[in-house]
Amino acid sequence: MTGMRALRIASVVELASLVVLLANLFTVHVEEISTLVGPLHGTAYLAVMAISFLIPASAAARWRTAIPGIGGLLAVRKLRGGPPPQRGGGPDPRRVPDP
């Protein structure tokens, strides 16, 4: 498994576990869910940070992993080179055409 793939998987697990924890907190607040998912979230958070130091990454990408929940996904986006390409095939609306 490549480092980027491991980072992506750990990031998704971290975000999903945070969503489950927050949903549990704001709805039924079942203690067993918190007991099971809390350590999973913490482990995924630490894994994202550790993986960012094991792969060739910029300091900016590594700092993004410190943001709980979405930091890993932000780091993956930074390492991939920014936002995905635009869809639609038309011209870039931000660009002013030459006269």
Automatic annotation (TrEMBL):
It is a multi-pass membrane protein. Residues 79-99 are annotated as: Disordered. InterPro entries: DUF3817_TM. Residues 5-65 form the DUF3817 domain. The keyword DNA damage does not apply. The keyword Transcription regulation does not apply. It comes from the Bacteria. The chain crosses the membrane at residues 12-30, 42-61. Keywords: Cell membrane, Membrane, Transmembrane, Transmembrane helix. It is found in: Cell membrane. This is DUF3817 domain-containing protein. It comes from Saccharopolyspora taberi.
